[in-house]
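Anyone up for a design puzzle?
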């Protein structure tokens, strides 16, 4: 991945089998990750024990809490000049923090200046109406990140009973794509500013595969409240 801090290096070991989508037999090479920043790799690779720092490493956006190097992507429907139907145009939120980014997205979508009011307006919609908005904006189940980009989920809504206080957010950097599936490299905070080997690869499906998206998987964890917002993110140019 161009300018990423993570390299996936193909190994000689292979695995051959029938592709799940019925496209025939496929041969896959084993890959080992390398952290180009700290020069570690394989099973002994270390990565920042913080979801945001780990994601920024994948996206080549530096490390530490420098949100200004990242931007949330989304889609809004706009009318082309002289056209009767709307087209979809990709735009980006200017906000730095995930909480502010989601409010900006809804503020622009509903033309409501106050971000909190815009978010409340969205949350008052029916489930079907919310799904339609999600699809138009490319958020939540419809968020799509390419390799070298990532996902962020901003917690929201009431906490799940017995789950304790929600996390404020989670980040994941995407390292691989297979059709509509995505593989992310993730790590979690441990309460100290350290790197460790507790990172993991996690595969996510598309909105066409119920329950498999990044949004649904992390919603099911009950760590982000009952109404979180997921956005795709990328390094700011």
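Challenge accepted. My sequence:
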């Amino acid at each position: 991945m161009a300018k990423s801090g993570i390299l996936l290096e193909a190994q000689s070991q292979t695995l051959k089998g029938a592709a799940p989508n019925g496209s025939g037999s496929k041969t896959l090479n084993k890959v080992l990750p390398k952290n180009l920043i700290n020069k570690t790799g394989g099973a002994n690779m270390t990565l920042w024990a913080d979801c945001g720092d780990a994601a920024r490493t994948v996206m080549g956006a530096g490390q530490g809490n420098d949100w200004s190097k990242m931007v949330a992507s989304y889609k809004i429907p706009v009318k082309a000049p002289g056209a009767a139907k709307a087209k979809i145009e990709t735009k980006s939120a200017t906000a730095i923090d995930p909480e502010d980014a989601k409010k900006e997205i809804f503020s622009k979508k509903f033309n409501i200046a106050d971000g909190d009011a815009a978010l409340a307006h969205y949350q008052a919609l029916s489930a079907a109406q919310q799904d339609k908005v999600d699809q138009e904006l490319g958020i939540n189940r419809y968020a799509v990140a390419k390799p070298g980009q990532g996902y962020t989920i901003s917690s929201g809504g009431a906490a799940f009973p017995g789950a304790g206080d929600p996390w404020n957010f989670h980040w994941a950097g995407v390292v691989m794509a297979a059709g509509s599936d995505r593989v992310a490299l993730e790590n979690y905070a441990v309460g100290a500013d350290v790197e460790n080997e507790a990172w993991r690869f996690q595969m996510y499906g598309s909105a066409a595969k119920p329950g498999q998206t990044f949004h649904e998987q992390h919603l099911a964890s009950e760590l982000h409240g009952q109404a979180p917002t997921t956005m795709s993110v990328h390094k700011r140019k």
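A detail worth pointing out: The mean pLDDT is 91.
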